[in-house]
Amino acid sequence: MAMIGVVLIIIIIREVTANRSDIIIKNKKEKTCILIDVAIPADRNVVQEEAEKKLKYKSLCIEIQRMWNRKCTIVPVIIGATGIVTRSLKKNLETIPGKHSIDSLQETAILGTSHIIRKVLQCEA
Questions:
Q1: Is 57 helix (H, G, I), strand (E, B) or coil?
Q2: 78-120 per-position pLDDT tens digit
Q3: Per residue in 12-28, pLDDT tens?
Q4: Residues 5-18, buried b or exposed e (16+ Cβ, 10 A)?
Q5: I need a labelling partner for 10 at 20 to 30 A (CA). Which of 71, 96, 118, 123 fits?
Q6: What's the Rg (C-alpha) of the chain?
Q7: Phi, psi (degrees; rounded to nearest 5) at 3
Q8: Domain spans of the chain?
């Protein structure tokens, strides 16, 4: 007489509201992970947007730490539509490897805003 065993495998999947950021940098040597999320909101929403990004990706960061066994950092890069930046942008950019210029980021945001305005107004410049 043969015995048949039934094995039940239960996989617990935690709900993560934000499951991917704009840029993910994994450093295998240092066992770190940097989640970078970029946004260009209206000027009056810059500080609020930065706080929202940190809160939004907190659960994803915790899951990465648990699954990949890496230290995880959330880096919001928020620049207003007319180039306004938060006080913490310089510190945030220092955590990202490489050289970064706040001036060039502001210039890119302003050029994007002017491009949108030209399209809306259907002007040629």
A1: coil
A2: 999 999 999 999 999 999 998 989 999 999 999 999 999 988 8
A3: 356 667 777 888 888 88
A4: eeeeeeeeeeeeee
A5: 71
A6: 21
A7: -105, 140
A8: 23-121
